[in-house]
Structures are given as structure tokens and as C-alpha cells.
Amino acid sequence: MISLESIRDAHDRIRPYIHRTPVLTNHTLNQRAGADLYFKCENFQKIGAFKARGGVNAVLQVAQNREGTAITTHSSGNHAQAVAYAARQVGMPAYIVMPRTAPQVKKDAVRDYGAEVIECEPTLEAREQGVRDVIAQTGAVLVHPFDDERVIAGQATAAKELIEDIGTDAPLDTILAPVGGGGLLSGTALIAHYLSPITRVVAGEPEGAADAVLSFRSGQVEKAPFVDTIADGLLTTLSDRTLSIIRQHVTDILTVSDPEIIAAMRLIWERMKIIVEPSCAVPLAVVLKHPDRFAGQKIGIILTGGNVDLGKLPF
């Protein structure tokens, strides 16, 4: 189990390399939701997403422990950028396996950080094989996107800051985060358990990549019955590690459709005047879909990232 001490250590370790992002509110969205919403704006984070936290925490430890001379990972985009950014900070080469269908803006950003992009077919099997090939050729150390305690501890620091900024006198009733591989959700659930046990943690997932909700119910890692969603950052399945944490500390996983995700994304753009990507809008879509469930609550929402392809907006 990832301890509170390990999350605090991760926060201390990464602090020079990340932003402490703001928590924003919006009167119009509060009215729409019938609840008080507090948005943790990781779209303002280094590399434009919360993934910087876990990537930096893991890569710094790889470098400090002299585990290898290069880094590799597979990712559809934000973790790829996080690892590329972190590797540059420690002066290590990075080899990033990315599906050919990943947004061009994310591929370009990875290259801008100095990493080499290796494209593959858009399947988990192809991504994992690409990483195995890189390791065989270069001896690089894998920093997994979510199945890594150091990554999960780093991701937990986003909710840690949110809980600290809200305070414990009137704690959050619920924190919502999207779920793909479960690294952010696992970290969020753990830090809420340690610092604000009264706070429930609920996940949002696209209907077009609904594997986590099946895994949550069955107790074993499941695959989505079909994959077709605009939320490109949430396409991966859980791991045994993340599923174990999620089943222990997460209250529920709720799904939303692509039209609901797009409507929530547009609301954030129009009303909050900030850029978010589709995956980021999933938790707000969940709240708007289930007003009775969240009515009158004090709710934290982790806005996970803003790396949207501006040439392919859904509105």
C-alpha cells in the first residue's frame, strides 16, 4: 500500500518542477449542478496535465537511484509529455511509444521536450510490444503510465493540494476524477482516505471506454465491450494494482456519453474561459447527468488537462 508518508515525500520531491495549480469556482456551473463545485485546474500544470506529477516523481527516483540511463513509456499523450519533460530535467534520453492516432498536438509536444516518438497501432498490445522492443534495444527503464507506485503517489498530490486548499473545517463531500488506467483515481482515493476520510471519491468514465466500471463490479480487470469515445486520454484498462486500490477506496464509477462529455467541455470553455480536453470534462458531465445524486454537496473536480487539438474541436 502507498503510504501517506510516500505521498508527502513525492510532493516534496516534485515541488520544484511543478505548479501548485489554482482551485476555481463558477457561479453559473454551480447553479447548473445544484452544488458547490471546486475545480482543481491541472490544465494549468506543467505539460498541460496532472500527469507531470507522477511522471516527474518516478523519473526523479530512477535518476537518483541510478536504475538506468534512459527512460521509456507508452502513452496516448499526457503521460508521454510528462515523461519527456521529466527526462529532460534529469538529462536522460526518453523513448515514447505512442499510438499513431494520438492527437498531433501531443506528439509534437513530446518531441519538443526532446524525446523520441515511436508510433504504433492504437492497441494496448501494440503499445506494450513497442516498449519491450525499446527496452531490448536501449536498456531503458519503463515508467508505466499508471501501474507504478511512484506514479500513483505523484498523481495523489493533485487531490492533496485540493484538500489542503479547501481545508478541513468544512471538507469536501465528494471528489470526482476521470478514470482510464486508474493512476489518478487511485492516488486521489488514497489521499482522501488519509486526509479527509469523510470525503467520498467517485469516478467518471466514457460509455465508449467503459472497462473500469465493469472491473469495479466484477473484481477483476475487464476490457471495454467496445472502444469509441472522444475522450482519448481514458482508453486504457485498469491494472490489478489500481483496481485493488479503487475497489477499496472509491465509492462508485459512473459513465457518460460523448455528447454529454462534449456539452460539459463546452460549458467549461464558455463559462470558465479556460481550455480543457474532452477527458477532462468527464467528471463535470457526471455531475450534470446525476443532479439528484450530488445536489447540495461540496464537490471537488479534478480538471485533468488542457492538451486539446485546436484543429479538431467538437464544437
Short description:
The protein folds into two domains: 4-49 and 148-312, 3-Layer(aba) Sandwich (Rossmann fold), CATH 3.40.50.1100; 51-142, Rossmann fold (3-Layer(aba) Sandwich), CATH 3.40.50.
Secondary structure blueprint with pairings:
Blueprint: H1 4-14, E1 23-24, H2 27-33, E2 36-41, H3 51-64, E3 71-74, H4 78-90, E4 94-99, H5 104-112, E5 116-120, H6 124-138, E6 141-142, H7 149-166, E7 174-178, H8 183-195, E8 200-206, H9 212-218, H10 240-249, E9 252-256, H11 258-272, H12 282-289, H13 291-294, E10 298-303
Parallel strand pairs: 2-10, 3-4, 3-6, 4-5, 7-8, 7-10, 8-9
Antiparallel strand pairs: 1-2
Task: Provide an overview of this structure.
- The structure is a single chain.
- This protein has 315 residues and is an alpha/beta fold.
- It folds into two domains: 211 residues, Rossmann fold; 92 residues, Rossmann fold (3-Layer(aba) Sandwich).
- The protein contains 13 helices and ten strands.
- Strands 1-2-10-7-8-9 form a six-stranded mixed sheet, with helices on both faces.
- Helix 3 runs parallel beside helix 4, helix 3 crosses helix 7 and helix 4 runs parallel beside helix 5.
- The chain is globular, with a radius of gyration of 18 Å.
- The termini are far apart.
- InterPro entries: ACCD_DCysDesulf, TrpB-like_PALP, TrpB-like_PALP_sf.
- One of its GO terms (molecular function) is serine racemase activity.
- Belongs to the serine/threonine dehydratase family. Belongs to the ACC deaminase/D-cysteine desulfhydrase family.
- Keywords: Lyase, Pyridoxal phosphate.
- It holds the Pfam family PALP.
